[in-house]
Amino acid sequence: MRDADQEDRTAIKKVLAGDFGAFEALVEKYQGRIYRHLRKMVKDNHVAEDLLQETFLNAYRGLRKFEGGSSFSTWLFRIATNNALMFLRKHRPQSIEYDDEIRSDPSLAFMTSSPEFADTPLEVLLSQEGRSKIEEAIEALPTLYRSVLILRDVEGFSLSEVADIVNSSVPAVKSRLHRARNAVRETLMGYYIEKELSTSRGAS
Amino acid sequence: MTTLKGCKEFCQRLSEYLDGEIGEHECRLIEAHLAECPPCALVYRSLCTTVEVCNKGVSCEIPDDVRQRLLQFLREHCDPGYAAKT
Ligand SMILES: [Zn+2]
């Protein structure tokens, strides 16, 4: 068991014994990541904030039902993901039902790459402009692909944890992840090719 | 490009390869191919970069007002004294 899990379990015992401060410490620990996840899921800061509050309230009220079969973080992300999906199903059903396919540019159907993106130094990729491109590329993904990519590549959950959180199978997660990563890769690659072109045009 | 079919198939497995989800035998085939096929090696490199920037490039900062409203909301809605209940 990971140290963080053990730490969370100790905190949960305290909460169940009536120590609300221990719950506030858990909120403090996870609020940033949960908020990020929700913002990426629903792409709306106000909705994400409502869901953030709901998620931690659900967690508090359901804490006795937390069995410890999974880690607390997995359990918490499952509540958050379910809340986001419930919201989307109710208010934007088309985003889940009809938009669940990655529409790939046919010219990229056979995977290609160009050196512009892969050779761009990390400090440029992670500059303010670079970061906004990453966020855009992730947000352009269909919901179910987006959720898997965020949980695996942004949050760092294992494949089986992701499957657990989104209530799916590991093979389904792998296949969505493969397509999501390549869609993001293609978007970023396109952006850096353009950037390179406009720089060299400007230079000549 | 006589290896086109092969390249395509290798590329389809790179995401799993990156996650360490590929058996030892197939792993060795992929590594051998990456070593001798620059286009596929570039695809793999850009895929690794993609995963790395997703991991490092999305901020998890939470604005102070959001943080404060969350705490206030929870203090209002969570029954204190959990243990006393049920
Ligand atoms: Zn190849």
What's the layout of helices and strands?
The complex is a heterodimer of chains A (204) and B (86).
Chain A: H1 3-16, H2 20-42, H3 45-62, H4 72-91, H5 93-97, H6 115-118, H7 122-125, H8 128-139, H9 143-154, H10 159-165, H11 170-203
Chain B: H1 4-18, H2 24-36, H3 38-57, H4 64-77
Helix pairs in contact in B: 1-3, 2-3
Describe the structure.
The complex is a heterodimer of chains A (204) and B (86). Chain A has 204 residues and is mainly α. Chain A folds into two domains: 3-94, Rna Polymerase Sigma Factor, Chain: A; 97-203, Orthogonal Bundle (Arc Repressor Mutant, subunit A). Helix content of chain A is 75%, strand content 0%. In chain A, helix 10 packs across helix 11 (170-203). The radius of gyration of chain A is 19 Å and the shape is elongated. Chain A starts with a helix and ends with a helix. The model of chain A has no long low-confidence stretch (mean pLDDT 89). Chain B is mostly helical and 86 residues long. Chain B has one domain. Chain B has four helices and no strands. The longest helix of chain B has 20 residues, at 38-57. The mean pLDDT of chain B is 87. The interface between A and B is large, with 56 and 43 residues. The structure holds zinc ion (ZN).
